[in-house]
Amino acid sequence: MRVRRIKAIAVKEVLQVWRDPISLMIALLMPFMQMILLGYGISLDVKHLPVCVFDREASQLSRDLIKRFQASEYFSLVAGFDNYRDVTRALDRGECQLVLVIPIDFTERLSDTGTSAVQAVVDATDTNTANIAIGYAEAVVGGFSSDVQVEASAMKGGATDVVQPVDAQSRVWFNENLESRNFIIPGVVALVMALVGAQLTSLTISREWERGTMELLVSTPVTPMELMLGKLAPYFVIGLLDAVFCLAFSVYWFTVPFRGTLVTLFFTTSLFLIVVLGIGYLISTAIRDQVGAAQIGLLVTLLPTTLLSGYAFPIDQMPLPVQAITYVVFARYYVTILKAVFLKGSGFLDLGAPILAMIVYAGVIAYLAARAFRKQLD
Amino acid sequence: MTAALETPIIAQDLVKRFGRFTAVDHVSLRIARGEIVGFLGPNGAGKSTVIRMLCGLLRPTEGRAVVAGIDVAHDPEGVREHIGYMSQKFSLYTDLTVGENLRFFGGIYRVPHALLAERIRFSVEMAGLTGREDHLVSTLAGGWKQRLALGCAILHRPPILFLDEPTSGVDPESRRRFWDLIHALAAEGITVLVTTHYMDEAEYCHRVALIDRGRLIDMASPGALKKRKLGGDLLVLECDPIGAAVTALQEAPGVGDVAVFGNALHLLVEDATAALSTLPDHLARRGVAVARIERIEPTIEDVFVQLVGTSSAGQGTRP
A1 CB near a chain B CB, below 8 Å? Predict the structure, then answer.
């Protein structure tokens, strides 16, 4: 193996990327666009759900309850109705996600029997949002209900402080404000790496075939190993630069907390890059036209990274067979590591298992890639 | 090693089959140091396939190639240190500049740093590209590109050069300059194997190998080929109408092959003097007006047409 040859190939590769507007765009602009698009575009938070009210009683008490909904940041009151037909129409048109219906005997039943009920009609087209909306609505009504109880007890001259027998005091760790952005953004880093790495490298060998330069390259004494290292080195550096950009963008723009160490991040990112670049290179040696190689590249890296890595869609909520498949998806390990490094500040010891999985993965891919290219035309 | 130096290119019964198609059929040849050997033959005859096997780009189906004293099948990388190759299709990086291409191949062949600048200067001058070192190769005209490709192929001063149709699509002036370069290199002891389908270029070679349908038909100096292969004298005949003349000549005694060359016919006859005295009358009786008939020196093209004619006829009658 000769360093001189590796250097010659690396220099040539950098010049070619620098002069190819598409490659340059993938390398420099794509990470920025991905961060913006995925950082802002995907949010699993449910806030300011549009709510309509059909207050059939219109009493002091019913208005108090409605005010509770108004005060909650999870709901926004958009309209009030006085008949069921309007309620149905509003839901049909998607004007609101939830309709609160207060019965005509709301106060009366409460004072007579001590309990009363309100109805929440929910648009459950999006089941996830519907579930969250029901949860929030129950919480709002629950808070209202206990206040009513305290008040009633005070009126009867009883104690005002002892109310609930058991009180769950939850403390939220790692993502204290329950911002889904903090959960998603670290995973976007993996997405950017997968996209940039595989896209750029899937073109490197096929470009030589397509332009006919491969024939000359094969006639030189360069070895397949030198060719691979020389070709991948520039993309490795580009990948790391993109990683630095993504990190800075996550921390300073999206204000995602970064609690881990840069060493852990650098080490695992390097492993991930080896896997992604290796896969891109493997594809490139197998498919000799650029368009085909780029498409296969997207298919085997970006798609599994998006759907099966758990970056936005939690793996433990997937059906069991699909969960089993995710173990083959290399991005799964990197996304796990990214989230832990960003939010929990985990180090090498905490992440032993996924890091080991990535080392094995990188080793296998590097071995296959080194053997993939044969210097023959037939 | 001495043998390797004196006979840097040896092919023994090289065969290459692609599926059921035999591209190269038992080709054997030995090329001496400092020789310029031209592979001449129609497109698809198998010229490039032979060269690619000698460079180790293709694996021979049968046979053996020894280049620079190294068995190509055993140590292709070892062979590649000693050869320069110019492929049929232009294959430098068109998105790099002249200088960047030269520096790239300098690095790939590990030309010592102390020598590289001087060698690059030489190649640039040879290609006539002085002052254009920073031009992108995509902006260069055909002749310049070909000479630059040669400049890249000789950067590491290989003792053996394989040039696959180096002058195709290049204007005549550039072609002449190119051949001057090849002769200058051969004079320094570099062995050159070059393919071409320009018949006139064969005259520039020390020896010509005639290749047709994958077989090496003959290999000798252009002069020797012309003398011994025709087996008769060559006449040129300008007449009208040509069609009637061809029919008439087929019945004429002592006339062998008849081939159309432009607006004239080339006739292979047993004896020029006899034919010149009898043929005009023979043609006139059949209504052919003879404008000119005289003896000419054969060219490689005449030899080739005649040889290919016989070899395909031979193939056709073989049981």
Answer: no
